[in-house]
Amino acid sequence: MAKGPDLVGLTVLALLSVKPSHPYEMHRFVLDTHKDYVTGLPRSLYHAVDRLARDELIVPVETSREGRRPERTVYELSDEGRAELATRLRRLLSEPGPDTRGFLAAISLVGCLPVPEAERALLTRAAALESAVFACDAHMRGLEESGLPRMLVLELECERALRSAELTWVRSVLDRLGSGELAWTDQLRADLSGGPDGKDADV
Questions:
Q1: Residue 119 and residue 178 in contact, taking contact as beta carbons nearer than 8 Å
Q2: Which of 27, 31, 53, 188 has the CA that lies 20 to 30 A from 200?
C-alpha cells in the first residue's frame, strides 16, 4: 500500500513557520481549529516532532518546566525545514491525488506560501483538473456510442461532477488571489499566534 503524505508533519512545519512552539501548544491549536485531517492525536504529533527533529527540519531552542508539569521543549523551524514546508505544500496543491485530505490540508495551510507560489501551484492543479474533466467527457462519449445503458456511466458522471466542481472552486480562488481579495499572511500569523489580536493563546 502506498504511503500517503505526512499531514501531521506538514502541520507541525507550518505552525513552526509562524513562531517557535512546544508540542502541547501545537496540539491545542490543531484541536481548537478543528484540523480534522490530523489524526492519531496526540501521539502522532509527538512522533512527528521527534521525526522532524531527527531530520533536522526543526530544532529545539528552549526547555522549560512550570511547577510539577513535565518539561516542555520549544522548537523552531530550520532553514531546511522552511524549504521542505514550501516543497510539500506546492506538491499537495498542484498534484491531484485520490486522497482529498492532502489537498484540504494544503489549502488549510496555504498562507504559509507566498501568494505567487500558491498561484502557480493552483494553476497547475487547475490544468490537471481540466484534463481530467476532458478525459471523463471523452470516455463517456465512447461508452454511450457503444450502446451501453446510461446507468453504467453513472460512475464517470460522478467523477466528472466532482472534478468539475473542484475546478470551478480552484478557479474562483485564483480569481480572488489575482484581484487581491485574498491576502492571508498577516491574518494567518495572527491566528496562529493565538487569535486576531496576535496574543499568545492560553495553553
A1: yes
A2: 53
